[in-house]
Specification:
The chain folds into three domains: 2-160 and 287-355, 3-Layer(bba) Sandwich (FAD/NAD(P)-binding domain); 174-284, FAD/NAD(P)-binding domain (3-Layer(bba) Sandwich); 359-472, FAD/NAD-linked reductase, C-terminal dimerisation domain (Enolase-like, domain 1), CATH 3.30.390. The longest helix has 25 residues, at 89-113. The strands form five sheets. Strands 1, 2, 3, 4, 5, 6 and 17 form a seven-stranded mixed sheet that branches. It has a five-stranded parallel sheet with strand order 8-15-9-10-11. A five-stranded antiparallel sheet has the order 18-19-22-21-20, with helices on both faces. The model has no long low-confidence stretch (mean pLDDT 97). With 479 residues, it is an alpha/beta fold. The chain is globular. Helices cover 31% and strands 25% of the residues. Helix 1 (15-26) links the parallel strand 1 (2-11) and strand 2. The protein is built from 13 helices and 22 strands.
């Protein structure tokens, strides 16, 4: 058995892990990164859930399905005749796979560029020794076992889809996000349990392609974490599109049929219902990936969810062991993991890495897109904070009219006394891009007046943000 020694070992090459490894290498450390994801050929596929079965492939399919819907329903408005529009699901999935591989290969290139040693296999703790830790790399059947050693270890093993109790994923009829991204044909009837980010995005993909989609949500409100006004606007848009969303349901027995599944549930009134579908996507949250890490071998503390217990700086209970991303507390977002990975690498170097949880943006990549940062109006009311509100609809935005997409609005919340921006909430075209201005403004503690006084290009969607800022002071110019 061979052993190599490093300054820093990172377990996991998802967004948090690979970024942590690169930043640590930039800071002069000798770094190893271990990751077990495999592509269809069995080769390395770094990037974690985000790159392989999450953020990246879902955006590829969302883009393809949006093109299909535009060609089918909206090209005529522009004077473009297309004839009968068809979807080749195999070609669409092939493009998605190409996009994923490009990202995998890009990470491997970055490792090489930054002199990060990459090990393909599952990393797990073996033992602690004076001044460091021994990590095993299980590379698969027939491969020579390896052990690595380092003074500092960063765990970035991510998360997995949560299954319904007693209903395991078979990825044929009962699907996680993984199976939901690999459907070989458009199902006639698709059921989705959970109206969170994954449920809405995958539901939107297959609805656009022709599936009859029903989303079952246990909570009595739609998108409870989103500003209520923004959530209502989004719900109206989804209803109009034909995405059926039932709230306040209680899911009962799920049975396998000859073709598909049968879902028994009670609606919001407590009335028993049955929904039959060709496919079922379950998107009820995610659980931290700590199984197989052998945490007990070194006494690494886990909580009742299986997450690694860390402090505000991502330090575990063990000296020299850190953890970032989905495997610790906080929002399960790729960009949050990246920021934590950078911060930990800098802390190991004696610097002062920092992550501001108050300015982490959230995005749902549906159409319309939904994005927000900071506190919602309902949160400010509950906290007793005096605030002012400014809203501006995309219906009054020239660029949105030219795009043919005027759904939604920008909403800005500012402190009533200081005018400091407390939250920005967007539902509408390119919300995922527009939110960056709000994040920057809030990070620098800008006021609504600061945004209102900045010159924005015309015509642009970003003018809606400026107008919402003007509206905080009741002086919007174009509405």
């Amino acid at each position: 058995m061979t052993q190599q020694t490093f300054d820093v070992i990172v377990i996991g090459a998802g967004p948090g892990g690979y970024v942590a490894a690169i930043r640590a290498a930039q800071l002069g450390f000798k770094v190893a990164c271990i990751d077990e994801w495999r592509n269809a050929e069995g080769g390395p596929a770094p990037g974690g859930t985000c790159t392989n079965i999450g953020c990246i492939p879902s955006k590829a399919l969302l883009q393809s399905s949006e093109h299909f819907e535009h060609a089918r329903l909206h090209f005529g408005e522009h004077g473009i005749s297309t004839g009968a529009v068809k979807i080749d699901v195999g070609q669409m999935l092939g493009r998605k796979n190409t996009v994923v591989k490009q990202n995998n290969d890009g990470i491997l290139y970055l490792f090489k560029k930054n002199k990060v040693a990459f090990f393909h296999g599952r990393g797990s703790f073996v033992r602690a020794f004076e001044g460091g830790y021994e990590i095993a790399v299980a590379a698969g059947v027939g491969a020579d076992p390896q052990t690595l050693a380092a003074k500092q270890v960063i765990v970035a093993t991510g998360s997995s889809a949560r299954a319904l109790p007693g209903v395991p994923f078979d990825e044929v009829n009962v699907l996680s996000n993984d199976g939901g991204l690999r459907l070989g044909a458009v199902p006639k009837r698709l059921a989705v349990i959970g109206s969170g980010v994954i449920g809405l995005e995958l539901g939107s993909v297959w609805r656009r392609l022709g599936a009859d989609v029903t989303v079952l949500e246990g909570l009595p409100v739609f998108l409870g974490a989103v500003d209520e006004q923004i959530a209502r606007e989004a719900k109206k848009a989804f209803d109009k599109q034909g995405l059926k969303i039932e709230l306040g349901v209680q899911v009962g027995e799920i049975k396998a049929l000859k073709k598909g599944v049968s879902i028994a549930y009670s609606n919001a009134k407590g009335e028993p219902q049955t929904l039959e579908a060709d496919k079922l996507i379950v998107s009820i949250g995610r659980v931290p990936n700590t199984t197989g890490l052998n945490a007990q071998a070194v006494g690494l503390q886990l909580d009742e969810r299986g997450a690694i217990v860390v402090d505000a700086d991502c330090r575990s209970n063990l000296p020299g062991v850190w953890a970032v991303g989905d495997v610790v507390r906080g929002p399960m977002l790729a960009h949050k993991a990246e920021e934590e990975g950078v911060a930990v690498a800098e802390r190991i170097a004696g610097q002062h890495g920092h992550v501001n949880f108050d300015t982490i943006p959230w995005v749902i990549y549906t159409s319309p897109e939904i994005a927000w940062v900071g506190r919602t109006e309902q949160q400010l009311k509950a906290e007793g904070v005096a605030y002012r509100v400014g809203t501006f609809p995309f219906l009054a935005n020239g660029r949105a009219r030219a795009l043919g997409d005027t759904t939604g609005m920008v909403k800005m919340l500012a402190d009533a006394a200081t005018d400091q921006i407390l939250g920005v909430h967007i539902v509408g075209p390119m919300a995922s891009e527009l939110i960056a201005e709000a994040v920057l403004a809030m990070e620098f503690k800008a006021s609504a007046e600061d945004i209102a006084r900045i010159c924005h290009a015309h015509p642009s969607l970003s003018e809606a943000t400026k107008e919402a800022a003007l509206a905080v002071d009741k002086r919007a110019l174009n509405f």
